[in-house]
Amino acid sequence: MSWLIGTLIIGISAAFATTFDDNLYLTAFFGKVNHVFRPKHIILGEFIGFTALVIASLPGFFGGLVLPEAWIGLLGILPIIIGISHFLNRDNDEDSVQSVAFELGNAGKSQHHQKSLLATLRDPKTYRVSAVTIANGGNNIGIYVPLFASSSLPSLTVILCVCYFTVGFWCFLSYNLTRNPLMTPVLTRYGRRVFPFVLIYLGLAIIIKSGTYQLFPSFAMLFN
Predict the structure, then answer these.
(1) What is the pLDDT of residue 168?
(2) CA-based angle 201:205:206, to the nearest 5?
(3) pLDDT digits (tens, 9 = 90+) for 159-175
(4) Which residue, among 157, 186, 187, has the nearest Cα to 170 in the 3D structure?
(5) What is the C-alpha to C-alpha distance for residues 14 and 139, in angstroms, rounded to an integer?
(6) Per-residue pLDDT tens for 125-162?
């Protein structure tokens, strides 16, 4: 049972660190909903884009099945580097994301009819949202690969369930934030301050969980 609690903590940390920024552009998308660009385009597009990022990261899990766990844990340095980079470089790309949302929200106004779920799944507007999700999730792969590589199948299942639940939560929250837009700057300000620490915590957790710290004395001997 203790492994489940530990895995849930890591899963929540990973989900927050890798999906928090999604809330920003999702709020922008939901703010541009009209009679042709519907919430289901945004929700489906978000989940499809996130799934693409997960699939791109799965080789890390399969690599972890054949490589020594301690060496796999060295990949934990990646989230630490990403976290430190966010201290040094404050990326303010909300405007560009919102401009994409504006263009997408105003695209295709000539159509005026309800679409089925299958038709929405094939609608280009859905995949434009997915494209933004993938573009915004460039760091996700750098975090998921070492996390998946250091996880067993049960742990990976729990982590993915937490991540998908979190994506759904951001969709729900972002939709409601369009009714109270004053909350968005508050979430952005404090969320961006917290999540570099979460990234560093994830990296350290991967290194410790994999026993990678045991390799450090050997590395020190190589430089002496």
Answers:
(1) 94
(2) 120
(3) 999 999 999 999 998 88
(4) 187
(5) 12
(6) 888 888 878 877 767 887 888 888 888 899 999 999 99
Asked if residues 196 and 87 have their Cβ atoms less than 8 Å apart, the reply is yes
- Number of domains, the chain: 1
CB 125 within 8 A of CB 107: yes
CA distance 67 to 62: 9
What is the token pair recorded at 124?
């280009």
- Give the type of residue at 110: S
Identify the CA nearest to 15 among candidates 179, 202, 176: 202
Rounded to 10 deg, the angle between the 124-136 and 22-30 helix axes is 150
**Among 66-70, 79-83, 129-133, 200-204, the least confident range:** 66-70
CA distances from 211 to 58, 82, 148, 206 (A): 21, 21, 15, 8
Q: Which domain holds residue 189?
A: 2-222
- Residue 136 is encoded by which pair of tokens? 């915004």
H-helix or E-strand spanning residue 96: helix 94-105
Amino acid in the structure at residue 16: F
Phi, psi (deg, nearest 5) at residue 88: -85, -30
The pair of three-digit structure tokens given for residue 58, joined into one six-digit string: 């799965």
30 neighbors 42 (Cβ within 8 angstroms): yes
DSSP 74: G
Amino acid type, 87: F
